[in-house]
Design goal:
Number of strands: 4
Largest sheet: 4 strands, mixed
Family: Belongs to the ArsC family.
Number of domains: 1
Organism: Pedobacter kyungheensis
CATH architecture: 3-Layer(aba) Sandwich
Radius of gyration: 14 Å
Pfam families: ArsC
CATH class: Alpha Beta
Helix content: 40-55%
Protein name: ArsC family transcriptional regulator
CATH superfamily: Glutaredoxin
CATH topology: Glutaredoxin
Strand order of the largest sheet: 2-1-3-4
Shape: globular
Length: about 120
């Protein structure tokens, strides 16, 4: 299992704490340090939808002008933006067997999917 995120994100911290408490082994991929590929972003967008992968609640998104936000209106544009601004990726993304199964943190979904 791989957990994608950034270590100083509160939602990622909650997720990692939950995984550790439930004794679930994982590898952590810090996409601030290691980056993220266009292919991986496309995979996630195809599974969750680009509007879910794009974190519109975060500070990175909110720093954009209304015009800049409005201009990101399809998957290709969202992926281009996310490649350059990895902090705007909704996190964490959890993959099992190289396939994304969860995005964000919701304990009920974690229980259903991972246990």
């Amino acid at each position: 299992m791989t957990v994608y995120g950034i270590p100083n994100c509160n939602t990622v911290k909650k997720s990692l704490d939950w995984l550790k408490a439930n004794q679930i082994d994982f590898e952590f991929h810090d996409f601030k340090k290691k980056g993220i590929t266009t292919e991986k972003l496309n995979e996630w967008c195809n599974i969750f939808g680009w509007e879910t992968v794009l974190n519109r609640k975060g500070l990175t998104w909110k720093k954009l002008t209304k015009e800049e936000q409005a201009a990101i209106n399809n998957q290709d544009l969202a992926i281009a933006y996310l490649k350059e601004n990895t902090s705007a990726i909704k996190r964490p993304v959890i993959e099992q067997n190289n396939k994304a199964v969860l995005i964000g943190f919701d304990e009920d979904n974690y229980l259903k999917t991972l246990i």
